[in-house]
Amino acid sequence: MPDLTDAELAKLAEQEAKTETIVVTGSLIGRKEVDSPAPISVVDKEKLASAGITNVGDILQKIPAQGNAINAQNNNGGDGSTRIDLRSLGTTRTLVLLNGRRVVSSGLGADSSVDIGTIPLAMIERVEVLKDGAAAIYGSDAIAGVVNIITRSNFNGTDASAYTSTSPKGDGTNYDLSFVTGRNSSKGNITFSAGYQKQDAVMAGDRDFSSRTASYNYACDPDDPMCKVGGTTLEGSVATPTGYIGTLDSKGNKAFTPQGCTADICTADVNHPGMFRDFIDPTADSFGDSYNFQTKNFLFTPSTRVNLFANGSYELSKNTQGFFEASFNSRKSEQQLAEEPLITSSKKIIISKDNEYNPFKADVADYNRRLVEFGPRTANQDVDTTRLVVGLKGSIDEQMPVVKNWKWETSYNYGRATATNTLHGNLIVSHLKNALGPTFTDSTGLHCGVVGAPIQGCVPLNLFTPGQVSQDAIKYLTFTS
Asked: pTM for the whole thing?
């Protein structure tokens, strides 16, 4: 390297002084961000604020290294949480830190990853994303990388904000209210924030791209004269409100023939009560008799969040500082699916030939029915997440030999997540078998079971006549878990 002039050296020193020294995620060593040997992305407060999104997890899911973690757009399989999955290695392999310290895993049950939505956006100064493995430092939960969320401190004043947005169709409205207040002194600082966020639902049936499902014919038997590669066919569920009745037995022989139906697959004829007709398969333009379940599903799930957050520090001596972090987040969220599809073959249920409501007087093993009388299946979450960190940190006096300028920290980190997940619309299979089994009639009415051995509390189920499921039967068959 050639010798530098005094002017060049002075310019380099000036540039060096302007470069901020930060504690880079993945190490407690203070160094320049650009000098980090691992790939680190930093999302600062300005970028977070300009994103037009109220959940920091939704913002972070837009980075290229993010995989397929769940969020509020996951209805079937979602739980209202928003998680991070770097490199698609699984959420359990992405470590989430708050100010360099671990955060309690939160969600339903003993979750193994953090719901990013529990951290209020208004309190975030920046987010550091280490997009490389850090298992040597943190353990196996950091194999994919680390997300370190840095909160605001040394804030003096009050900052309040109100945000609202809605879709062009007027649904999915989002409200977010938050404020941050802080005070500084020569000895320390304290910052407090509170916020409320409400997200309304969007129904899948209200968007063209999600209002129906279809299959694409990408291959078929070339010897089949009907073969036509390409094109889509609407694809609904064969568990329909009018029923999907297979009339063949296990050997392929005709077991019974519903009145009015000439095909092997029949359905109830709602225009002629007590009669049946051939089941109409879906086409490119029509669902036929199959059921379009998409109209009952959420496309964007609703939720509300309330959060409180505080942090602070106080200088106890020249080289020692006490600090704390405290947070509380309460989330209520919901998912909704179409009504329960009853598929007798999957539950190994036989509709008895001795059931009063079985018009065929033969055992029915292949019967699918959408239980629209029962209403949609729903899941409601009520999740509270609490976190408290208290500690001391400092440095060794610069006059001390050998260990001068060393830094130290000790802290206690407590976290607790409690959740209730309430499910509606599912069936009690044992009760379903009873209700579709043999029945008998005596002077007091119709009963499940056989004469001399009634099934107490059971209500026989009328499945073959659409709209004839009684409220007593619904009460007997469903439960809230």
From this structure: 0.85
